[in-house]
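Progress narrative, Year 2. Work on Unconventional myosin-Ia from Calcarius ornatus advanced from sequence curation to structure prediction during this period.
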Amino acid sequence: QDNGFEQFIINYCNEKLQQIFILMTLKEEQEEYVREGIQWTPVEFFDNSIICNLIENSTTGILAMLDEECLRPGVVNEDTFLTKLNQLLATHKHYESKETQNARRVTDASLPPRCFRIHHYAGKVTYNVTGFIEKNNDLLFRDLSQAMWAAQHALLRSLFPEGDPQKVSLKLPPTAGFQFKSSVAMLMRNLYSKNPNYIRCIKPNETKSAMVFTPELVLAQVRYLGLLENVRVRRAGYAFRQLYGPFLQRYKMLNPQTWPRWDPPTVPCCREGTEVLLAGLEFPAEELAFGHTKIFIRSPRTLFDLERRRQERVAQLATLIQKMFRGWRCRTQYQLMRKSQILISAWFRGHR
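Result:
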């Protein structure tokens, strides 16, 4: 109920994680359909980039203004920090405080004077600015780092690399908010370089009881996790997509016209080969879509059917290979035996 600097930082990280979820599961997927020339009706969704920018913008973001207040000479307290927020963010639709509400002539008794409120993706959160500057300015001073690095213990030296005299910097140590922002940026770069899969957990009730579901609680989580938009995109979109070349290489044995090879292996020719392959399998037309570089399959059932047919065909091909090898081995053994028998008979007749 009482949110301070720590909860603000945690919610900022959650907002960034929600942003990458939106980009990778909603925005990029819909952009790929358009890029591939697939007929598509866009699904509307809320992009929380405006909230992330409100917090992390390098000039007008809340963290930047907090750092500026921490480094500013003179009397610094939370009131001056809140006043600056109210001046710069007075017109921002995802920020509000008592002063901005008064300017808009909004009556709201739930927002105390020394607080501001952010309209996060998951809902509105009120933060008390008390302690923001002190906690953000929780610096590890240079002389302490140098003292720890001067210790002979290897672990202590590894924990305080900034204490190395050869790496001494005259700049002020970074604030807690700046360090957390840098860590979040590094995490985002790491996640963007991967191909993440998401598991969304829903809390069914507040009492942690088995087989008890509170509909209002479940529905609220489904909404703020973005699952409604995600389900709409998934249902309207395609469950599977792959480049024509690898797809044709994997399933070409299912059609005599594409087996054992389909030459030459160029993109237009691979698309033509994929169309010939799937035409022979007689899938419904609405299950397939042919993009510029990829084949799209709508339902998992069609993909499972493809895999089942491939497994059956692979078993048939393995049997054929075994049959041909056994026939070759028996013929070779028979020819050696026949040759040996003729040689033995010739020598025996000559001897007799």
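The chain has three domains: 5-138+173-193, 199-237, 238-302. The CA atoms of residues 1 and 126 lie 8 Å apart.
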